[in-house]
């Protein structure tokens, strides 16, 4: 079966490598135009384009250059664009989505699952349709990501997703047209992460603050400056101090205490929270610069 692969993000590289290493015939790689510039000022190709070029594949950055007679199946993984209906209607297109659909349709399913404690975490192989992430499902595989940081969660999901894609493509029946089934259940959605999703709030539980920090960009304010929270754990004990108070190196929350281990204060290098406290006089955290 001749395959056209559509991908741009770093996640896509593992899927293209899986296809090539398993001996599937990839006739074209479609990726976004390069934007990132190297230190010498040259525009560098996407990681997917670089892999395709190394492996001698036809690499395209414009859909108009795609020859519809050149492939029988399209596979889309982190392409970063919505394919036009007129293209999707010409061939079957498969997509790998990082949630147990119909939960967490949208742009940030992994991040939203991490914030929810690993709810609906998994990989779904589906067929593309016009409505976003609403296509019929071939298979969904749960993947445990609770308490893992975002990078590790992506690694676990990608390992499972590559295996799922490879196993289905290896089938010799007419599964593409017959094996998919409609999504069942009420859809939920996963919008992109914004700054408000990253703020540690003392009026939430310590567990929720811990989950925010797993995204890798969470922060709180001390003396009107941002402090990035790089590593932390939860102490379920409570104190009698007000919410947000720093007590023996622990932050009092609405339920339990959040214990920062590593932080990066604004304009400074990474340090332990204990060292940060020794060099400042802060006694509480805030959620705004004021």
From TrEMBL:
Its EC number is 2.1.2.9. The keyword Protein biosynthesis applies. The keyword Protein biosynthesis applies. Residues 1-162 form the Formyl transferase N-terminal domain. Pfam families: Formyl_trans_C (PF02911), Formyl_trans_N (PF00551). Residues 217-280 form the Formyl transferase C-terminal domain. Keywords: Protein biosynthesis, Transferase. GO terms for molecular function: methionyl-tRNA formyltransferase activity. This is methionyl-tRNA formyltransferase.
